[in-house]
Structure formats: structure tokens, C-alpha cells
């Protein structure tokens, strides 16, 4: 049996943001990425470029990554002006080089936001997200014996919506793609997946207030409903979660 | 009252102010447009509509103060949000593309808003703060719109208002938390419909006068 093999090799010109440290001025530098198999992922392509840089005793391009299977939320960069590249519902590690053509020029930049400081090259400090979670993105549970499963009934629809919101991997693409560098999709997802479930309800009000306050303090921008976040989110989190956050906030703050 | 200042001063609070005052202006636009339709009934119909409006006396003053208050809140919180957003991304991208979320309306909100504000001042100077002795409102409007430059400015301003409303209308519902797959498509449709009605409804009037003269 013959197997059809559609893979081929392409050559690309990369313009990559290089910045030695947080307080140093950075700039775009040009590299050649040659003989890149179209079966590679975007990060594997960067690995190839980095190997060559290391062989030439140059500083490799720093970028974040971990699982490389689209579930951890560590990877991410702007590729030709799009968060995680041009494909819908994809993290950078799951973006494949077959979506690029031979001789393409690819501009790679880090997430840009006042709240995400650049650590080096494409690596940004997303601890602002952790601070928001610490402010209220949890439920308090009294420890004790293991409770029986399914003692608290959860309507199927609520479970589905909570699960959709909980799919957020905290990658920061929503902030990066938002024209206002707002974190409302992330916070909306986190507030929603807890507010929708019975276990999250007792703390719903303080959670909404505390997380929004922390979000504002961290220096994220204000949402103007551009809906770019929803279009770029690798987990396709809906802006209905932002509306829910708004409702939770109004309820907690005014009612 | 600290809690109220905290809520209103937050990003969501300021947006709620934008949404509520914005929706207020949508209601106003609707009423204003309905009143203006009397122009098609001829000179007397329009003049008597204006007279009726003025016979409301103190009620009208209350409404005017209300509108001024709404405008102040809308402009102030809008400016604060705009400046905050500029600060939120100090270093811009070398290349940034839309993923298909933004619209003409959403992209240009602060700019169309600013132009509409300038227009409102201009409009009030033309038709509100003018000497109305020995003349009628129809006469004043008719005189203004016999000048093609005025007609041009007014038509352009109405296109701005239409673009601003096309994003502002549905956006207000989203900000107030009213977004559900069941009815959001309807609100978005209404948003486009309303912006077309406002843009064309107001925008055609100056052209009508130009042809009349
Ligand atoms: S909402 Fe989407 S884009 Fe934003 S952090 Fe979560 S997964 Fe990433
Ligand atoms: S490396 Fe884990 S999501 Fe990309």
C-alpha cells in the first residue's frame, strides 16, 4: 500500500522581537528558517532556528512552552499580527507550518500589554493573571471526609456552560489581541465557571468584586466590546461570559 | 457611599455609565427623529410641533438639564476609558491584524464620539442658541440648509452618528449583561437597523431642504 505524503520543506524569513531584558529596548531581528518541514509545529520551527543560532554561538530566541499539545496555556506569540497565528481555535504549539507558504515573511512578537511585562524576547510575565486568580478565582471548601459523589445536583445546562468557561487555559491571547489590552475574557471565564456551579455561589459576590478590582489594579485596559478576544481565544471562550461577569459585578456591587 | 464610588469608578462601572447614558441618547434620538418627521407635513406642522414642545415649559428645561448631565457623564467616562486604554498598551505592535471581531463602528468609537460632540455644539449654536424673535424655527432651518456646506456638514455628522450607534447600541446591552445566544442576534440586528434609521432619517432632512429651496 502506498501512502500519500503531502509534507514538503519550505524556507521562511522570520522577523523576531529580540529583547534582552524587561527594561531594555528591544527590536525586530531577521532570521532565515530554511528546510522547514510543513509537518512541524510553529514551536518546532523555532527549535530548528534556535539550534542553528546555538551552533553559531548566538543567543537562542526565548519563548514559553510546556505541554505542546494545546492544553497548558504556556505558549503564545503574535504571528503576523494575530495571537497564536492565523488559525482559529489554536494555540501556537498546535499551529502547523503547512499553513505557511514557501518564501513567506513571518513577524513574531510577544504579547503586548502594560500588565504583561516582557521578560525576554517572546517571554512575558503573566503573573497578573495569577494575582487575579488569587484575589477570588477559587472556592473555599472545608476539609473533612470525602463527600459522596453527585450529592449536589447540577443542571446539565449549567454544567455544560461552566465546562465551556473552564476550558480557559490562561494563555493571555485575549489580552494580546484586544485593541485595549483588556483581560475581561479571562476574568469573565474564571468568574463564570465558578458562578455557574452551586459550589461557587456562596462566594460569587466577593469574587466578582475582588477579581475585577485586581484586574483594574494590574493595569489591564477597559473592554469596549470589540470581540477580538472571542475570535482569537484558542479555547473559543464566548463573550457571553463577559456579559455574565458584568451581571455578577452589577449584582455584587449594586444589589 | 464608598462602595458606590468603588463600583462606579471601576472599569465595569464606567462602562455601565457609558451604556446607560448611551441608551438614553438612543431614546432621545428616536424622539428627536419622530419630531423631525413633522417637517414632511410642511411648514405649519413643524412650527406647531416646536410650539408644542416649548409649551412644556419647565418639563422641557428638566429634560434639557437631563440631557446635559447625560452628555457630561458619557463624555467624561468615555474620555477616561479611552485614556486608560491608551495606557494599557504602551508599546504598540509592529504588525496587528483583526481576527474578524472589530467592525467599522467598534474601531472608531472614540473618534466618531468626539466628532459627534463637536457636531452637537455646532448644532445647538445653529438652531438652539439663536435669536428666535420675528422668525419661525422652520425659517431658521430652511435658511441654514439652503447652504450646501451646512447640508454637507449635517449629512456627514449623521453618518458619524449612525456608525457610532451601530456599535454602541448592542454594546450597551452586552455591558449591562444582557447577552444570550437566544436574543443577541436580534439585538445586533436591531443595532444595525437603528443606526440605518437614525443615519438616513436625520441625514435625508437637510437634503430635503436643499431641494425645497
Ligand atoms: S480566555 Fe481564551 S485567550 Fe484568554 S486566557 Fe483564556 S484561553 Fe487564553
Ligand atoms: S505549550 Fe501548552 S498550550 Fe502550547
Q: What features would you describe in this structure?
A:
The complex is a heterodimer of chains A (255) and B (213). Chain A is α+β, with helices and mostly antiparallel strands and 255 residues long. Chain A folds into 2 domains: 3-109, Ubiquitin-like (UB roll) (Roll), CATH 3.10.20.30; 126-254, Orthogonal Bundle (Fumarate Reductase Iron-sulfur Protein, Chain B, domain 2), CATH 1.10.1060.10. Helices cover 34% and strands 15% of the residues of chain A. Chain A has a 5-stranded mixed β-sheet with strand order 2-1-5-3-4. In chain A, strands 6-7 form a two-stranded antiparallel ribbon. The longest helix of chain A has 15 residues, at 240-254. Chain A starts with 8 loop residues before the first strand and ends with a helix. The mean pLDDT of chain A is 95. Chain B is an all-alpha fold and 213 residues long. Helix content of chain B is 78%, strand content 0%. Chain B contains 8 helices and no strands. The longest helix of chain B has 31 residues, at 58-88. The interface between A and B is large, with 50 and 44 residues. Bound molecules: iron/sulfur cluster (SF4) and FE2/S2 (inorganic) cluster (FES). Iron/sulfur cluster binds next to helix 4 and helix 5 of chain A.
Multimer state: heterodimer
Secondary-structure class of chain A: alpha+beta
State the fourth-level CATH superfamily of chain B: Fumarate reductase/succinate dehydrogenase, transmembrane subunit
Largest sheet of chain A: 5 strands, mixed
Give me the CATH fold name of the largest domain in chain A. Fumarate Reductase Iron-sulfur Protein, Chain B, domain 2
Poorly predicted ranges of chain A: none
Low-confidence stretches of chain B: none
**Count of DSSP E strands of chain A?**
7
CATH architecture descriptor name of the largest domain in chain A: Orthogonal Bundle
Give the distinct bound molecules: iron/sulfur cluster, FE2/S2 (inorganic) cluster
CATH topology of chain B: 3 helical TM bundles of succinate and fumarate reductases
As a whole number of angstroms, the C-alpha radius of gyration of chain B is 19 Å
Amino acid at each position: 500500500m502506498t501512502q500519500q505524503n503531502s509534507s514538503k520543506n519550505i524556507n521562511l524569513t522570520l522577523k523576531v522581537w529580540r529583547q534582552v531584558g524587561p527594561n531594555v529596548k528591544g527590536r525586530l531581528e531577521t532570521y532565515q528558517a530554511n528546510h522547514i518541514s510543513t509537518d512541524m509545529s510553529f514551536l518546532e520551527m523555532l527549535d530548528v532556528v534556535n539550534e542553528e543560532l546555538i551552533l553559531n554561538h548566538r543567543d537562542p530566541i526565548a519563548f514559553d512552552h510546556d505541554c505542546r499539545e494545546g492544553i497548558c496555556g504556556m505558549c503564545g506569540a503574535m504571528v503576523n499580527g494575530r495571537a497564536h497565528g492565523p488559525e482559529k481555535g489554536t494555540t501556537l504549539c498546535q499551529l502547523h507550518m503547512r499553513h505557511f507558504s514557501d518564501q513567506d515573511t513571518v513577524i513574531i512578537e510577544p504579547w503586548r500589554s502594560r500588565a504583561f511585562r516582557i521578560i525576554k524576547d517572546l517571554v512575558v510575565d503573566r503573573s497578573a493573571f495569577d494575582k487575579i486568580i488569587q484575589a477570588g478565582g477559587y472556592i473555599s471548601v472545608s476539609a473533612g471526609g470525602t463527600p459522596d459523589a453527585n450529592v449536589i445536583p447540577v443542571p446539565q445546562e449549567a454544567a455544560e456552560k461552566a465546562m465551556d468557561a473552564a476550558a480557559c487555559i490562561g494563555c493571555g491571547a485575549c489580552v494580546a489581541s484586544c485593541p485595549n489590552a483588556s483581560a475581561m475574557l479571562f476574568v469573565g471565564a474564571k468568574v463564570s465557571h465558578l458562578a455557574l456551579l452551586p459550589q461557587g455561589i456562596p462566594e460569587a459576590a466577593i469574587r466578582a468584586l475582588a477579581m475585577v478590582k485586581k484586574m483594574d489594579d494590574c493595569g489591564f485596559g477597559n473592554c469596549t466590546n470589540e470581540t477580538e478576544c472571542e475570535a482569537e481565544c484558542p479555547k473559543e471562550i464566548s463573550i457571553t461570559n463577559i456579559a455574565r461577569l458584568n451581571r455578577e459585578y452589577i449584582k455584587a456591587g449594586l444589589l | 457611599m464608598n462602595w458606590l464610588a468603588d463600583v462606579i469608578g471601576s472599569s465595569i462601572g464606567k462602562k455601565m455609565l457609558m451604556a446607560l447614558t448611551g441608551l438614553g441618547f438612543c431614546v432621545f434620538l428616536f424622539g428627536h427623529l419622530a419630531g423631525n418627521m413633522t417637517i414632511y407635513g410642511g411648514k405649519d406642522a413643524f412650527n406647531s410641533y416646536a410650539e408644542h414642545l416649548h409649551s412644556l415649559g419647565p418639563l422641557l428645561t428638566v429634560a434639557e438639564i437631563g440631557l446635559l448631565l447625560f452628555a457630561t457623564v458619557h463624555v467624561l467616562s468615555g474620555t477616561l476609558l479611552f485614556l486608560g486604554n491608551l495606557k494599557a498598551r504602551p508599546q504598540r505592535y509592529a504588525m496587528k491584524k483583526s481576527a474578524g471581531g472589530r467592525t467599522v463602528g467598534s474601531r472608531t468609537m472614540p473618534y466618531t464620539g468626539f466628532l459627534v460632540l463637536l457636531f452637537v455644539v455646532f448644532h445647538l449654536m445653529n438652531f438652539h442658541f439663536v435669536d428666535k424673535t420675528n422668525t419661525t424655527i422652520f425659517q431658521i432651518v430652511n435658511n441654514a440648509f439652503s447652504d450646501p456646506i451646512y447640508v454637507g456638514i449635517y449629512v456627514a455628522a449623521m453618518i458619524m452618528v449612525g456608525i457610532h450607534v451601530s456599535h454602541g447600541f448592542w454594546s450597551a446591552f452586552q455591558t449591562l449583561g444582557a447577552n444570550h445566544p437566544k436574543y443577541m442576534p436580534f439585538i445586533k440586528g436591531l443595532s444595525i437597523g437603528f443606526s440605518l434609521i437614525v443615519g438616513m432619517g436625520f441625514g435625508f432632512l437637510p437634503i430635503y431642504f436643499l431641494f425645497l429651496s
